[in-house]
Amino acid sequence: MLSSSPLLQSPPASPWWTPAVHSDRRPMLLARNRIEAVIRLHLAEADFLFVDPPGLQVSPGNEAHLHAFSTEAIAPSEARSPLYLRTSPEFAAKSLLAAGEPRIFEIARVWRNRERGPLHHPEFTMLEWYRAREPYETLMADCGAILALAAEAAGAKVMTWRGATADPFAEPERLTLAEAFHRYAAIDLMAVLDDRDALAAAATGQGSRVAPDDAWADIFSRVLVEKVEPRLGFGRPTILCEYPNSEAALARPKPADPRVAERFEL
Fold first, then answer.
1. Angle at 121 (CA atoms; ends 117, 127), nearest 5 degrees
2. Is the CB of residue 147 less than 8 Å from the CB of residue 168?
3. Which of 41, 76, 233, 251 is deepest in the core (most CB within 10 A)?
4. How many CA atoms lie within 13 A of 28 on its CB side?
5. Cβ-count burial of 113 within 10 angstroms (0-12 exposed, 13-18 middle, 19+ buried)?
């Protein structure tokens, strides 16, 4: 019987798993192994404990812009209960912190639904590590060190993307969200905190699209993605820090300025 089903048609002439095609990709696989090995060694030497929490969890999380893949568990009795693939290992890791573990890390497989494009894939690997009772500036230093170690393991002297370059061994620039919004979007972020209409007017004035049903967080994210992020990391890495509290789930408010949280991204 002949069928037009895609599952029964002949495979592509050069599928990725053929030796000739795989040989072009193998150097990246080897580099990935070296990167993971050097990160594991670096964190182990700093007294971090490797942990391996489960990938399935009972809650999808509470981040507005993260969407979990859903499934269900079926018991021998046929009883069914919903479960979700984790979008990060954060909940389980922080439970271990609460239990008393001072330094932990995981190289985790995670999943995020509704995400696919040049910068996102629905399934990816995430390094997550925690230091208890240490300032978050120490974690910023960790990020710079790990980036340099990874670049060295990969044999990369510079990082390049779409014609731009950055030196992974340079001291990262530190930029607050308020500074970044002022510099790259001409918006006084602290003046429009929690004021949806004021932020909408400021964003519209800078050419960003604002829909009638956009919440404050939606407008903030659009300005960040369109105006700020494309201008970061040129020449050297950039650490973006001091996010508004509403955009920093599970991060504590900064003692010196409780309007912002001790959240940062490299």
1. 135
2. yes
3. 233
4. 5
5. middle
The residue behind tokens 């909408």 is: 200
**DSSP symbol at 244:** E
pLDDT at 12: 59
End-to-end CA distance of the chain: 56
Helix (H) or strand (E) holding 125: strand 123-131
Model confidence at 234, in pLDDT bands (50, 70, 90)?
Answer: very high
DSSP letter for each residue of 135-190 = -HHHHHHHHHHHHHHHHHHHT-SSEEETTEEE-TTSPPEEEEHHHHHHHHH---GG
> Given CA atoms 215, 216, 220, 226 in this order, what sign does their dihedral have?
positive
